[in-house]
Amino acid sequence: MSDSVVNDSVKAILGGSILGVLATVNDDGSPRATPLHFFYDATGLYWFSQKNTQHAINCRGGARVSLSVFSPDESE
């Protein structure tokens, strides 16, 4: 598959309704995976949460974060 096709597919997913899982690490080293809705624009990928949620605290506490995003449309 060419890069332009992959990029178009990625842009199509990011341009629509984005679901994802944000994985972080708790203070005790245990994993935490949080399903979220994401928003994408030309400057980045964002999610909206209260600042006191555990995943938001974990993100502020260090860089051990992973994100998986997918389209709810199974054709993408």
Question: Tally the helices: what do you get?
Answer: 2
Shape: elongated
SSE run: HEEEHE
Total number of beta strands:
4
Q: Termini distance?
A: 15 Å
Oligomer: single chain
Task: Calculate Rg over CA atoms.
Answer: 14 Å
Mean pLDDT: 83
Estimate the strand proportion: 35-45%
Neighbour order of strands in the largest sheet: 3-2-1-4
**How does the major sheet shape up?**
4 strands, antiparallel
3D architecture notes:
- This protein has 76 residues and is an alpha+beta fold.
- It has two helices and four strands, in the order αβββαβ.
- The chain has helices at 3-15, 54-61, and strands spanning 18-25, 31-41, 44-47, 66-70.
- The protein has a four-stranded antiparallel beta sheet.
- The radius of gyration is 14 Å and the shape is elongated.
- The two termini are 15 Å apart.
- The model has no long low-confidence stretch (mean pLDDT 83).
Could you outline the blueprint of secondary structure elements for this entry?
Blueprint (H helix, E strand, L loop, with lengths): L2 H13 L2 E8 L5 E11 L2 E4 L6 H8 L4 E5 L6
Antiparallel strand pairs: 1-2, 1-4, 2-3
What descriptors fit this protein?
elongated, 76 residues, 2 helices, four-stranded antiparallel sheet, alpha+beta
Q: Gist?
A:
The protein has 76 residues and is of the alpha+beta class. The protein is built from 2 helices and 4 strands, in the order αβββαβ.
